[in-house]
Amino acid sequence: MKEHPEDVPVVGIAGSAGGLKAFKALLSNLSGEMGMGFVLIQHLDPNHKSILPEILAKDCPLPVLEITDGMNIEPGHVYVIPPGMQLTLLHNSLSLMPIPKDKRLYNPADLFFQSMADDRGSSAIGVVLSGTASDGTLGCRAIKEAGGITFAQDSDSAEYDGMPASAVSAGCIDFVLNPVDIAHELVRIVSHTAPRPSQIFLKSEETLTATQEQLNKIFILLRARTGNDFSYYKTTTVKRRIDRRMLLHKLERISEYILLMQQDPQEIDALFQDILINVTAFLRDPESFDALKTRVYPKLQENRPLDASIRIWVPGCSMGQEAYSIAMTLIEYLGDRAGNYPIQIFGSDIDESAVEKARSGIYPETIEDEVSQVRLQRYFHKVSGGYQVNKQLRDMCVFAVHNVIKDPPFSRIDLISCRNLLIYLGATLQKKVLQVFHYALQPGGFLLLGTSETIGSQADLFAMQDKKAKLYQKKSVATHLNNDFVFRENHNPVAIEVPERGDDLTLVYSLEREADRLLLETYVPPGVIVNSDQMVIRFLGRTWPYIEPSDGAASLNLYKIAHPDLVVELRAAIHSVIKEGGKIRKEHVRLKVCGEAQRVNIQVLSLGGAIRNEENLLVMFEPVTVSSKEQIVTDEAEGEQKENLEALVARNSELEREVVTTREYMQSIVEEQEGTNEELRSANEEIQSTNEELQSTNEEMETAKEELQSANEELSTVNEELETRNDELARTNDDLTNLMASVNLPILMLGSDLRIRQFTQAAEKLLNLIDTDVGRPIGNIKANIDIPDLESEVLDVIDSMATKSIEIQDNSGVWYAISIRPYKTLDNRIDGAVMIFIDISAIKDVDKIKQALARERRLATVVRDSNDAITVQDLHGNIKAWNPAAERLYGYTEEEALDLNISQIVTEYGQSDLKRMIELISEGEKFEPMQLERITKSGEVVQIWLIATALMDDEGKPNALSTIERVAH
């Protein structure tokens, strides 16, 4: 049965500068039997035609194709992105899209990986190879969230480790290996799994087979290691994560995985991270933030006192993007009013590493795709490797490790944003968490959930405000939060004894809260909490008349809003506590309130490090009342002093003058200090302005650097292609050199300008060439062979593009056939001529032989048909030839005659004439025709007329004789 194409696992491989070498190493170790489709995403120069498919095809055992729009993925094939395009995957179809004009938005690896994660889910595999910047990081995060597997090239083998290092630092990479090992790991994963490669990863509805007892063992190991109980998380989610970890370790039975967890605690940490899925983004789901701006933020400032802080809680905050996003949108909504309200945003998560990243506020450059340029410039500043949230937002957001299931919740919260956390929890945990949220919220507070989450059965606790954005508001109903709420191994809650009257618990709780409030109001003196700059950050109780607003611009500076009579004592006490620590108390400090003299005790205490990196002070004002006994003593003293009234008046006037003088002096000091502060503030603003200009310049330089880096990556890719082509040309040149040296044939290559390009060793001797003749015109060479009109012949071949052949004889008499062919380039352009010299002397000799044979055949015909007897004899008289006429004349057949000597058919009287004839012919003299006697086979003597002719050898010497004989009449 043919596998459905959408079941084929897809391996996305991304690279940039230095990626070509890594691609070749990885692909050369793959196999066509893996059943996977491989898609290569390379940063290419959009203006340069790529030869990447041709280069990779030479080392890859699989077919390599350049992608066309709408192409379907088939297993056992490699697909390469074309230049100037981005790529996405939908239902097994590859779709090409043009690259954006803004190069900062050009992240082809992220785009394809994210679409692959959406399309293939858990059967997606992402590989990040050598390259600069951070393309591929967000894509790998999406693949990891979908349950797929991710690889990154290690820094030792990567020529540029920017891309793989960014993905690794983001915590979304499963394997960090060199390209060869990545290929081997892919092969091992396929060979370890079921017969069909599509079964490498489980679908959303598929989970591994495991008993509840086995899962409980895993939950116990997780709880012992991390302190978190996952037994009430959704079983399907937990099982898929366990199966993924088993696949990575190539384990088939869950018992083997439990043993691995017992032996390797780091595997517990890895499973913990996989279950958490710390994946989020800035300003995710814009409609949710629109709902906050239209429905929540306006309510937060309605009838809110200026000293009442806005408190927001983001449980499951991951790396802080959600908390910072709320901070940005809230500041934008409040505008100039943002300074009127203290804003506190609490981000919590059970993953300590994620919380640390949230506190640092440093994010990769890929957030440019999530945050607009305006917000980047306003809320972030550039740092090495990315962006950092500015101090204003970091001061508003407080992050802590917190388990919403078991830890005490934050209280008096105005808004809770808990998105995509409940989907991982079972129904029991969801119910408990929603009760915790209801308890934590202020009356009328808001709850924001993820787009795929609801409050379920807790509709009695929350009212729907925006169905699309999943925004709810707290209902005013009583709830009971039991902080000892735990679960047993059998997943049943611990039994809680409930009183017969269900309202008793609520009543007890209300009494305790009311008692605490009355105690604070009755016995705790009023006061304020100030920071290290003596700015009031919290008012405690009713602070009038010790704290009152002053004329002019509103301020929270303690010295400006404190009663004038208390400023000197406050300064001294606070200065002493800051310098020496501990606490200090000023007793019976006098002040006038509405014309009446009062006394107050001032106590200043250090709060130490209650808030990290801050030194806060608690200032309390304890009113002092004058007793009746003290008042009587005062009256008696006044009576005695009446006698010295004038002296007392004078003394009092003097003291008042001293006080006024002291106050004026202290006021001058204060004014001078304030003037100095204003100057410092002005200088600081100028420095800050300069710093902003420098920051702007730095950002421009960073932008230019990014553009240069992008161009450098493209040039690097082109350079790698050219290097590969140079290697091929070098090999081709070596092949040509060896061929020219091995061919024992004169070959001469000429350019279109008739200058010599190449020649063989055989051509050196024939044409009288030396090595330095390369580049010289052929007309300047004095060859050993004369070729008439050579230059015109070659030009005629170049112009007509037709092959021409001519025959020439050299100075030594050797014949050559010269073939002149046009020299064609790869693009079928004529760029010269090639001359090949072929020795045809042997062919010429064969022709001569053929001509001689033809003559001999003609002569043989004449001899055969002649009426005269014709014979051939050597100089010893042995008969060598005998024609039919001789057979008829003498009666001997040709076979019989060839065994005779001529002397055997000559009479005794004719022997002397025969001898004289042979001698004359042997000496080269002429023999005149004569009449002789011959004896036939029958013994008859006949008179013949004989004509003898000498036959010559190659040197012109007689070696035989021919006779013509006829009967004399």
UniProtKB/TrEMBL annotation:
<keyword id="KW-0489">Methyltransferase</keyword>
<keyword id="KW-0808">Transferase</keyword>
<dbReference type="InterPro" id="IPR050903">
    <property type="entry name" value="Bact_Chemotaxis_MeTrfase"/>
</dbReference>
<dbReference type="InterPro" id="IPR036804">
    <property type="entry name" value="CheR_N_sf"/>
</dbReference>
<dbReference type="GO" id="GO:0005737">
    <property type="term" value="C:cytoplasm"/>
</dbReference>
<dbReference type="GO" id="GO:0008984">
    <property type="term" value="F:protein-glutamate methylesterase activity"/>
</dbReference>
<feature type="active site">
    <location>
        <position position="43"/>
    </location>
</feature>
<dbReference type="InterPro" id="IPR000014">
    <property type="entry name" value="PAS"/>
</dbReference>
<dbReference type="Pfam" id="PF01739">
    <property type="entry name" value="CheR"/>
</dbReference>
<dbReference type="InterPro" id="IPR022641">
    <property type="entry name" value="CheR_N"/>
</dbReference>
<feature type="domain" description="CheR-type methyltransferase">
    <location>
        <begin position="203"/>
        <end position="475"/>
    </location>
</feature>
<feature type="region of interest" description="Disordered">
    <location>
        <begin position="672"/>
        <end position="703"/>
    </location>
</feature>
<dbReference type="InterPro" id="IPR000673">
    <property type="entry name" value="Sig_transdc_resp-reg_Me-estase"/>
</dbReference>
<dbReference type="InterPro" id="IPR022642">
    <property type="entry name" value="CheR_C"/>
</dbReference>
<feature type="compositionally biased region" description="Polar residues">
    <location>
        <begin position="685"/>
        <end position="698"/>
    </location>
</feature>
<dbReference type="GO" id="GO:0008983">
    <property type="term" value="F:protein-glutamate O-methyltransferase activity"/>
</dbReference>
<dbReference type="InterPro" id="IPR000780">
    <property type="entry name" value="CheR_MeTrfase"/>
</dbReference>
<dbReference type="GO" id="GO:0000156">
    <property type="term" value="F:phosphorelay response regulator activity"/>
</dbReference>
<keyword id="KW-0378">Hydrolase</keyword>
<dbReference type="Pfam" id="PF01339">
    <property type="entry name" value="CheB_methylest"/>
</dbReference>
<keyword id="KW-0145">Chemotaxis</keyword>
<feature type="active site">
    <location>
        <position position="16"/>
    </location>
</feature>
<keyword id="KW-0949">S-adenosyl-L-methionine</keyword>
<dbReference type="GO" id="GO:0006935">
    <property type="term" value="P:chemotaxis"/>
</dbReference>
<feature type="active site">
    <location>
        <position position="135"/>
    </location>
</feature>
<dbReference type="InterPro" id="IPR035965">
    <property type="entry name" value="PAS-like_dom_sf"/>
</dbReference>
<dbReference type="Pfam" id="PF13426">
    <property type="entry name" value="PAS_9"/>
</dbReference>
<feature type="domain" description="CheB-type methylesterase">
    <location>
        <begin position="5"/>
        <end position="193"/>
    </location>
</feature>
<dbReference type="Pfam" id="PF13596">
    <property type="entry name" value="PAS_10"/>
</dbReference>
<dbReference type="InterPro" id="IPR029063">
    <property type="entry name" value="SAM-dependent_MTases_sf"/>
</dbReference>
<dbReference type="GO" id="GO:0032259">
    <property type="term" value="P:methylation"/>
</dbReference>
<feature type="domain" description="PAS">
    <location>
        <begin position="855"/>
        <end position="925"/>
    </location>
</feature>
<dbReference type="InterPro" id="IPR035909">
    <property type="entry name" value="CheB_C"/>
</dbReference>
<dbReference type="Pfam" id="PF03705">
    <property type="entry name" value="CheR_N"/>
</dbReference>
<protein>
    <recommendedName>
        <fullName>protein-glutamate O-methyltransferase</fullName>
        <ecNumber>2.1.1.80</ecNumber>
    </recommendedName>
</protein>
